[in-house]
Fold these 2 entries.
Entry 1:
Amino acid sequence: MYGLALAVSGLYLALLFGVAYFADKQRERGRSLIANPYIYSLSLAIYCTAWTFYGSVGRAAETGLGFLPVYLGPTLIALTWWSLLRKIVRIAKENNLTTIADFFSARYGNSTALGMLVSVMVVVGIMPYTALQLKAVSSTFDVLESAFWPPELAPAGIAGLDIDKAFLVAVFMSLFGIMFGARHLAPSERHEGMIAAVAFESVVKLLAFMSVGIFVTFGVYGGFGDIFSRASEIDAYRELFVLDSPSAPGFASWLSVTVLSAAAVMFLPRQFHVAVVENVSEDHVRKAMWLFPLYLLLINLFVLPIAFAGLLTFGRQPLQSDLFVLTLPIQHGQPALALFAFIGGLSAATAMLVVESVAVSTVVLNNLIVPLVVQLGVARDVSHWLLTGRRIGIVAVIMLGYLYFRVAGTSNSLVNLGLISFAAAFQFAPAILGGLYLRWLSRRGAILGLALGFTVWTYTLVLPALADAALLPNGFVERGLFGVAALRPGALFGLGGLDPWSHALFWSVILNLGGLLIGSLYMPPRDDEVSQARKFVDCFDAAERADAGPPSVAGNFSGDLEALMARFIGALKAADRMRTYREQHGIAPGAEIPWPLHADLISSVERELAGSLGPASARILVEGYVKQQEPRMEQIIDAFGEVSLSLEQGREDLGRRVRELSILYDASTRLSSSLARPDIVQAVGELVTKEFNLDGVDVLLADADGNLAPQRQTPARIDNGPGTTARGSPGERYPTPRQLADSPAALRAYRERRVVTSQDPLPRRLLPPTRAAQEPEPIRSYLAVPIFSGEVTLGVLFAYSARGLVYFSPELLQLVQVLANQVGSAIANAQLYEELRLVSLDLDRKVRDRTGELEHANERLRENDRLKSEFLSVVAHEFRTPLTSICSFSEILLSYDELDLVRMREFVKIINDEGERLTRLITQLLDISRIESGKLELALEPQDAGDILEAAKRIAEPVAARGDVHLRLDVPSALPPVLADRDRLIQVVTNLLSNAVRVSPPDETIRVSARREDGMVLFSVADRGPGVAGEDREAIFEKFARAQAGSRRGGDGTGLGLFVSREIVEHHRGRIWVITALGGGADFRFTIPISTL
Amino acid sequence: MSAGERGSLVAALTGLLLLSYPLVNLPNVPILVLGIPLLYLYLFGLWLAGVGVAWLLSRNEE
């Protein structure tokens, strides 16, 4: 019979290969067979393995509804697929993830360690499941053998050949897996042939199972009602109609298996593979979310009827009920139907084995082997080696399952084997589902959770199973590890009374989920994890998809990158990828790739490599390559570092940044618009109190001696509004600026040029304790920030809060320091402005002074001009009087022929006098002109004063005699010589004498004297005339001056004599004045310095 | 969360509730209705309803 079963199996597998080959060919022609939602849904039905095909009936026969949660769980989770599965598909495609381990590794910062952990879990976790398939297939061989070739008829030769059927199946499956799953390397390329075969098998197994079901239900029995009615007559079987009966599962187990199954349908490696990696279009998820549950419903519809039919037919036989699907048709004479059912079971098993082995070998290769290869730094082309590695991996996975089957599989029913794997898959759920929605989950949290979950799984499920198979001593299961009852695997820490699944699920949730959450809280994600987390969580959010990505590279490195790819995916494919990239971006072959695309190119190379090697290894390779280039591209990396930093900061961070920037902007506009210090202080105060919720701000500036000086006298309290003013009066509660300036905090900030706050460990107290010591300290939070302008410390910006303790974050301190720097430059500006203003004021004053002087000079010039005109008119007048006399008397002389001699003489005398007067006038005018033009030159020599008076007396004698006036000279004998110009001095005295003679009444005496006085010689000419009125005593020395009373003026005074005299005396550094003489009259006096020669 | 996401979450949680103790205990009696155990009818009916809801949800997410 082996011959028949093997032949049928061989033919069927050949048919499958034909289907797969056809699908691959169609794909090459661009007509994909699998690119539709129906094939996708059917491929998901790989969930129904030999376990479903045989095990469900077995479990139904033993426990009634116990098989059902395995399908109800997937039905429930399928309801959420449009958001959940689609999100996973989107992420996997964007990051070119090809296994569930890659997904972990990529989500949690491309962690190699996490990838390795998940890989080990996957390999160990699916071992029971693969064992189950081998067990199912090999036992069905036996059943078929007995049906077609009863043992008594069996040829001795064949029966004697003790072929290990399970091994044979394993070899077949390995070959199949290699042919469809590892013909070429990149697993990111979908295996269309394999999927087509899987879908085909799904149809076959559904048809086979339903055929048996319909035959049994309607062929053997009279429909559903008939079977159930007959079963209900037997009490033991009626128990199977309900839950929580002695033979049916309890509610806890019912719910636990539902939950485990919901996780398994998504996270078993082969499910992840068909649902995510092999997905052609996200939109296919839409149909699959109801088609797949419908498929499950249909394939399970006849499980219960077949089970009850089997029970009714064969009775309860432990471990035999698993095979009712085969034995019932055989029993009822339908070996062909049994053969069809066998094909169906074979389909279920092969599909599972092939896809599982392909998926798991990729997991192992990407996360265990390649990281090692990459770490070792293999430089040559390893692409071929990787393909071989994958093939070896496929064989290894199946053989491990075979090993498990040989070692432990015989004693466990199919269902138990399968559920152990389900529980393993469940361990992935917390970190994946959480990782899709919670950004703060960290790599270390995930590792902790997984490790704990894996430990729970091993200890509570795997070890008892091994003990059950007598591979381990049974003692620890019954009595607990080391005899401690609390460590019994089935009742950990005394949690008894539960079925193994509920028990394992409980501890998994507690430890795995708990480890993930608490681990993430205490070991938060690092920077590189945050960007990956963002990529995953926000994958639907287009705005969030800005990816820092790998750093860019300067220069043309496409050749290097191609070589890098070639080492892992082969030269041909690498060249093809590079060509495609160039085509997509419209770059001619051979042309340089413009540098803005470099980052993008590196990302796509990384994605490409991730498809073959897993994301962790791809990231290591690309980073290693980029690091090589580093010296050439330092600048660009720095810029990118900035970008990724800011991206990694949360939204709150960004919001805060924006606020800080707007504060600084506000500050700079306000500060740059104020040029006076008080304005700056005011502006800063308003800004800080408003933005930072502080109560007061003062700017303390250093004076020339380096002491801090407050900028105002009253406390700088600026009310924020209601609620902040309620406490005490400002004078009591707030320190004065003077106190602030003297506080140790301000001084330290100024001297040590650093920020000092109330958070510093050193003295916290702002002010020295006052007399009112019991009064609580008003200011408990403050910050003193040095104000810099260039290298100079200008002073301190002091801000404080009167409302208790305030925490100043480092960011806030930074911000305030920046603000203080702005204040610094604003104050420096204000200082410059002030200096400029002073200079300009000074200049202004000088200009005004100079203008005044000029105006004054101008005024004087005008006055001089006026005086000159006046002078001219006076001179002309003075000339006209004598000329008029001369003319009229000479006319008389001419017109009268006969005139007596006496009269004639009289007239001529008048003419002569007037002529002399004119001459005198002219002489004096010449003197004046000389004086005024500064040309009066004195020949200064020592002169004897008496001598000079004598000479002057001699000149004046004739005139005096004529007026009958006596001259008396009175000079002491021991008079020192004076320094004078003899002629000029004589002129002065003569002048004074002639004036005196003119005003003296007849017979009077004019006294002329000289005496020594104060280093000078005082000359005096005193007459007995009418004298000079007090108000005229200055004026008579002016040009053409006349005493008001006119009394001093004689007929022949020119009005210039005294003026000339004064000028001459003053040129001698002497002084001339007039006083009233003794007994009336005028006493003209002047001084001349004594000669020192 | 979109309307579809909300709907699918509500549907899945409601399904879980209907499958859990104590609600599942209501039809948990060994009697036959139309020749079929009541609990079987309840569970398969629920399953079919689940498929229907999934179909509706998939249509809503156009």
Note: Chain B has a mean pLDDT of 86.
Entry 2:
Amino acid sequence: MTNPRRDTNRSTPVTSRLGMLVILLALTFLILVPMVFIVVGATQEGAAYTSGVTFSLDSLRTVFTTKAYLSSFAGTALLSLSVAALAVCVASMFAWLLARTNLPRRGLLELIILLPLFLSPFVGAIAWVTLASRNSGIVNVTLGQVFGLSEPLVNIASTGGVVWVMVMYFIPYGYILISPALKNMDPSLEEAGYLCGAGPLSTTLRVTIPIVRPAVLSAFFLVAVIAAGVFSIPAVLGGQGGFTPLSVHIYRAIARPPANYPLAAAVGCALLLLVFVGLHLYRRAVRASSRFVTVTARGFRPRLVDLGRLRYAGVALCVGYASLAILLPYAALVLVSITPYTITDLTKLTFTLGSFQEILTSSRVLEAVKNTMLIGVVAPTACVALAVAVSYVVERTRIRGRRALEYLAVAPVAVPGIVFAVGMLWAYVRTPLYATVWILVAVFIASYLPHASRMTGSGLLQIDRVLEDAATVCGASRVKTLSKITVPLSKPSLLSAWIFVFVLTVREINAAIVLYSPDTMVLSVLTWDYVEFGDFQMAAVAGLLQTALLVLGLLVGRFVFRVRLMR
Amino acid sequence: MASLTLQDVGVQYGDVAAVRGMSLDVEEGEFVTLLGPSGCGKTTILRAIAGLEPCTGGQIRIGGELVAGPGVHVPPEKRGVNMVFQTYAVWPHMSVFGNVAFGLKIRRRPRSEIRAKVKDALELVGLAAFSDRYATQLSGGQQQRVALARAIVTEPRLLLFDEPLSNLDAGLREQMRVELRELHSRIGKTAIYVTHDQSEAMVMSDRVVLMNGGDIEQVGTPRELYEGPRTRFAAEFLGIPNLWPARVVAGDGTGAPAVAELGSDGVAGCRVAIDRVKGVEPGTRGIVAVRAERVEVCRDRPGGSGVNVWDGTVEVAAYLGGRVESRIRSSDDLVLRAETKPSLELVAGDPVFVVIPPDAFVWIPTPPS
């Protein structure tokens, strides 16, 4: 220690600047470059994988002037707005029932309402085809038999069907956004209503609802934004005569020969435009909601509305939702997967495990399972590691440029998976990365970084900085402090983030469908393949396999690592 | 163990100066307390000494070595100091042993040495039996001892304390004061201790640094500070309730008490004899301060010289167990706060006599402005 200040003074900034550089490079290649290439790709002509592409605005012109695309644009907007409206209405009702009334077993009911968050909407859509398709759906067949109907009762392969399944899966999203506003609302605001002589109903209508309106509005726009980018549900259900949403147009531009990558990027731009408008409105709604500061530190239990006998109707609503979103679809999937023929009569069924045998011995399936598991382990791990690095730099250092990191890390939230994947394709199609498992890993890391970094960031904020200061004065360097104190202490939030990204990754199809290759098949894409060939029995089996993997991951997380899944 | 020198140290947050140009010399082995109200910059300067806050001006030297100055910022882990935090900052994911051993493990000391040193440190704070417990299983006082053991085990050159006792209950706090003081005399480390509690500062320190608004108000031994506050802020912060603006009217230098005139709120012409204004130029303005316990209260007119005697009425008397605090208004409308023995049985409305000996007054000259 002859002259410690010279080396310490230089080495610390150098290591942190180096770390910053590594993170910045990772974010640039994972996020910035693909996002730029969405626009770049849209202004090209020719096949992306050759070097013979030239600048052209033809694709963009086609998308923004042709009637087919313009009506798809309007239709997508309409679809996502109606899905958001319906989902948010139902979600608000559930949120009110579970936060403000004396419904019995509210904890359990909340759990079953949130459960669909962890399941795959894509598999759900397949299940609803087996339940309610026009000709062979179990519901139509059974009801037709019982009541002697000649015409099928319901048809899931319609725009209405698409809305139905989407609403089913977006209700929990609405719920988690609206419920906190109701739960954290200062109860004295309602009490003041009661004391002014207003009954429970008029207090709810005149006080509670206006106060949570900003939260409801922001939930509405967020659900609309996510719904606009969903590919899997309309792709599975998009029947004859219905309209084709933009996401499906993107898929077709890539999957139907001759592949037209510029067109895919151009449609992606249109979809992005839609999403940006939605996000703008969402941000305005959020800003409005911060005007209504309804959260207080006082721990009073809010007064609950006594529903009387209506309580049981409330429970029935929750249970009914769970049956439609989980029980019925998965029962149908199981039933279809073990019956060898199309179901025509529920009283005369033959059972076989043949399809399971077939699928479990197929090398293609085993390959897909292997890939899915590989990606399901690598992507969440890398994603959470990057998220920790980003949130550490943002929350705990004063390095210049950390705000840029933050913006980059949350940017993918504004880009639908299928659009982001098109950007990824354009950016890396001529690199060795393309057509490997690693490009799938990369797209998942990028897509879920916003979610992961939000979770790790809030976890980090909960750790008192003094705990880190204490390590520093004990002689630990920044890296040592991070690895010995910060990371171990934020383990719960890291594990939650890991499990969350794992779930999203395993069930993901919107981006995988663009970037997979025959050698890098994953379970969700394999399931899609069966759907494309009309083999819904095999699709059901593959979907169940994927669900089994998800449930296995969740169970391991919950019971081995004791992760809190709901926050 | 080392000396500490602060030279013109400033810490600035944006436009706000938390510490402005602070200079202080602390000798080896000294126990110095930074005392002041919240927001006076005492914790900030402590963190700057530790290297947890960057200095924006001046120099800090530890043992003569420059650790902070223009273009120099030795990071905290390289400064060879350690700190006990207000919230203890005991790591919840490690055992007591793990917490204390952390600094030694970082230094890659051999395992046998770590075990021996941690054992010594835990014995020193009386926690040897708790080494396998986790922090969450310990009481506040025990956690504070863990933090202390963790800080001393790395044998820092400086030991820093950031209000370490403020989260403890009153009884434990007094016990820990004595223990900390004893510990300091045993290990003889240079220690800087931050507190807002003046009695804590009095009990523990060799010297007290009174801070106000990011700067030093007064430095001295506890006795010097207690008996001779040099500013109105110091007098108020150190709990002197009787403060009157005054003007010296006569000082003859013959040994007789000099006289000052109290002149607050229309109490003109009340003349008192004050030892400390001997030799002060007549006409000088200042503040006279008297501690409540130096105000003598009796029921009968006292004999003797008759100097500085008032007759008055008790307005408020508050019984506090060991003493009675009272507010007395004299017949010439001077309001005095006094502390008396409970045996005097003062109650509101009692007519009393008040005597203040000439040596009880503290003279605080008002800076000419």
Note: The longest strand of chain B covers residues 16-26.
